[in-house]
Design goal:
Layout (H helix, E strand, L loop, with lengths): L1 E2 L9 H5 L5 E2 L8 E2 L10 H5 L5 E2 L19 H10 L13 H11 L12 E5 L2 H22 L2 H9 L4 H6 L2 H10 L12 E8 L6 H18 L3 E4 L1 H7 L4 H6 L5 E10 L21
Antiparallel strand pairs: 1-4, 2-3, 5-6, 6-8, 7-8
């Protein structure tokens, strides 16, 4: 991080804006000093708020040269309309998604905020049909074992004794699970024959907010897909199974120690939605 004293207007914007509090000055007419350059989180706020372009990053920094503001930014009505048209798509055309569109989705996901600008969310993009089918098979195999466990006499006994415990809570899902497994023999109720699957993952040692960072990125990716005319579905079963079956990570080939935060199927919808659905305003408490 460098501050050019000759260009500096001494406005103090960098002092007030820096989330890491790197800039310091004793008097309002002084050029700020950078106290701890190593503490920089590389968010770039100082550069894009400095009216004199007096602040630059080192050559080896992860921050690129600031770009001008976009000429076109969506207003609230446009953005709300995009959100209204998002659906969880379970029917896809047998048509591949161009790589350039998948790259746009990933680039949009990276714009999501991360704690202290860590930028540690990783992605694995799967378009190989054999790998997608292996994800489905492994997930189905695990769910079959869980259904067998829930059908056991001891599980039914524990569910009766502890209806709000683990056994009782899981027992409520047994009818749906059995239906899923039965239909799963002839239909793909896990990944819905999607042509692409995007998986967000992170180093399990990445800090307490790593999973939250990944969820925010997934939401960005979902909205980007909608804006590109694509449909998505959150891969809940695969994500759940990945917590207990390391084989999911082996199929995806992400680094040891990484955890799957979530995933999404991506493809061109095979069904057209003729309208949008209204959502009831959520229960909200105002503290004023």
């Amino acid at each position: 991080m460098k501050l050019d004293a000759m260009l500096c207007r001494r406005c103090g914007v960098c002092v007030a804006e820096c989330p890491a509090h790197l800039f310091y000055r004793q008097a309002n007419d002084e050029v700020p000093q950078i106290l701890n350059p190593d503490g920089c989180i590389h968010c770039g706020h100082c550069m894009i708020t400095c009216p004199a372009d007096a602040i630059t990053e080192e050559a080896d920094s992860s921050i690129s040269t600031p770009l001008p503001l976009p000429a076109k930014v969506a207003d609230w009505e446009c953005f709300y309309g995009l959100l209204q048209t998002r659906r969880s798509v379970r029917q896809y055309q047998k048509k591949p998604v161009p790589r350039e569109l998948l790259e746009k989705i990933i680039a949009t996901a990276e714009l999501a905020p991360t704690a202290t600008n860590q930028r540690k969310v990783c992605w694995t993009v799967v378009t190989r049909p054999e790998t997608i089918q292996e994800l489905r098979r492994r997930t189905m195999r695990f769910l079959t074992s869980r259904a067998t466990l829930l059908r056991s006499p001891i599980a039914k006994f524990l569910a009766r004794i502890f209806p709000h415990g683990v056994a009782g809570s899981n027992m409520r899902y047994l009818p749906f699970l059995e239906q899923l497994l039965e239909r799963g023999e002839v239909e793909d109720w896990i990944l819905f024959d999607a042509p692409a699957v995007l998986v967000a993952h992170y180093d399990g040692r990445g800090g307490r907010f790593a999973d939250t960072d990944a969820q925010l990125a997934i939401q960005n990716a979902t909205l980007a897909a909608v804006a590109l005319g694509l449909g998505t579905f959150y891969t809940g079963f695969v994500t759940m199974v990945s917590e207990m079956d390391r084989g999911i990570g082996e199929v995806l080939g992400y680094p040891a120690g990484h955890r799957m935060a979530g995933g999404m199927t991506v493809g061109y919808p095979a069904v057209a939605y003729r309208g949008v659905l209204a959502r009831a305003y959520p229960e909200t408490r105002w503290i004023e």
